[in-house]
Design goal:
The chain has two helices and no strands. Helices cover about 15% and strands about 0% of the residues. By secondary structure, it is mainly alpha-helical.
């Protein structure tokens, strides 16, 4: 019987990198998001694409303003699209966490 503790005196075999192995890149690491998101409720976002869209062209800025007034929407020089009727978008401060 040996007076050394179990395994004492044995060399530990370490895996070494060989020239043939490619180093792991950060994007190659396994994802562990599932353990952090376990138990979270599922979220299904329905199809939010418009069912139809049309392009409308105007000859002048005054025409754009008249069109916006008739639709009851606000447009600026930077407006390039809009929803009709106006979408009621909620803001994060209106959200409630349960």
């Amino acid at each position: 019987m040996s007076d050394k503790p179990n395994g004492a005196g044995k060399e530990i075999a370490r895996k070494t990198r060989t020239d043939e192995e490619e180093p792991l890149l950060p994007l190659d690491l396994p994802l562990d998001w599932e353990k952090h998101w376990w138990g979270m409720p599922a979220f299904v976002h329905g199809d939010a694409r418009p069912s139809h869209s049309i392009a409308v062209n105007f000859m002048s800025w005054e025409d754009v303003q008249e069109f916006a007034d008739r639709l009851g929407v606000r447009v600026t020089q930077k407006t390039n699209s809009l929803w009709f009727p106006k979408e009621d978008l909620s803001k994060p401060q209106d959200w409630e966490y349960i």
